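## Example pair
The file below holds two records. Each record gives the amino-acid sequence first, followed by its structure token line.
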Amino acid sequence: MSIFISLAEQAFVSLATNDSYARGAMVLGKSLRNHKTSKKLVVLIGPHVSDQARAVLHKIFDEVRLVDVLDSGDMAHLAMMKRPDLGVTFTKLHCWTLTHYSKCVFMDADTLVVSNIDELFDREELSAAPDPGWPDCFNSGVFVFRPSNETYGKLLQYCTEHGSFDGGCYGIVRVFCSVWLLCNVRVCWVVAMVLYGANAKVVHFLGQMKPWSYTYNPTQRRVRGSSQPVLLQQWWALYSAEVLPMLIREYGDQPFNSGCEERVQPLVSSAERKQRWEQGQADYMGIDSFDNIQKKLDVFLK
């Protein structure tokens, strides 16, 4: 079946290179949907994203595109920043290849939308927010761009010839795009929602510790080990209520760490599970839920 997409269509775009960032993208996608965006949702994924995570992403995003993982290989600069994980953020450059959309807004998987931000599409390439640490630069966590194979080619050429001043995508996009940067996005970029919550439209969880790096107690609605509970509780509330049930359905009886203290799937052998059933102790809210049983039956009947 052929799919025809109007060139006038616009999209929010995110990136997930592994399952952890995929969960971040899931929450981001849900937050955009919940705030009634009229735009398409696209997520670029790397080959290390599991089948279960891909299945959930397909239910949230309009388009899930597998891309090659690009890596800067610049360990010196990344080590200086103490962020070796940023090397693969070069993969973000693939977003310029989405030429079936007329304009896009890229959003990192560690962002959360708390209000409708469709207004960003009124901005031109390349609009972004100032970086909190380097105001003369911009943060590439959220930016407006126009997909172009020509621009993509030039970015890759620039990477080959000049590299990146910080070893990651931030550096290459900042320098390459500096001549057409407009730092006038009307999104209030905050990392202290407790102080500026009334004006916030996008929360960006900067730094190495991401929301999924913590543990959450859904009964107490408390994030363990965090000094920013207000910021993280909103992320975890959305994840546990709307994303986790989808993940549980996809994993079925396969164990996985959900991040929620009361919902961590235990490693249970078939014999132990059978014994629990015989004792009337089936896990009806988890691996023995009706949805999972139905899924197994469907597979068997097919």
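Second record, same layout:
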Amino acid sequence: MRSLPLTFCATLVAGTIALPASAALAAPAADDPRDEKRSGVVSVSPSRVSPGGEVELRVDVCGRGRSARGNSEAFASEARFEPGGGKELVAEARIRSDAAPDDYEIWVTCKDGHGKATGTVTVVHHGRPSPVAPVRAGGGGTAVLAQETVADEGPGTRHAVIGLGLGAVAAVAVAFRSARRRRPAQH
């Protein structure tokens, strides 16, 4: 009874070892070098970017005059590559404005399907948000700062109390001085 599970496990292990070897022997040799899948690396500039920012992507696995498409969970939409200089393809991609800080993988596939490339972009958050859409007021990002300081400007309760106190002191000083002048001089 115990030999059945042992025999099953031994058969499974032998099959696992033999299958990759037999698959490698059965694979036909590629006669045409264009049939091989080329792999490469996606060059990302800048490699660290804030949400809403743009990155430039470059690949050279697709060959001259071809096109490719690139995707990432960080991208707002698919990146479409066009010929750059030489064998390079170039694309620009916008990072989603709601992308969380993390490293995101980029996948690029050549149009003919014979080349692929991968890369990584790092999304970082800065302490102060930078506007990526039209701002509410002129001056770029100063609208946020101006809005915060408006609440601190102008007279508030504290200023009113200080003003009333100073006014009372001034009234007492004027009354005291007037009273001293009215008194007749006594000898």
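Notes on the second record: The chain has two domains: 36-142, 152-182. The domain at 36-142 is CATH 2.60.40.10 (Immunoglobulin-like).
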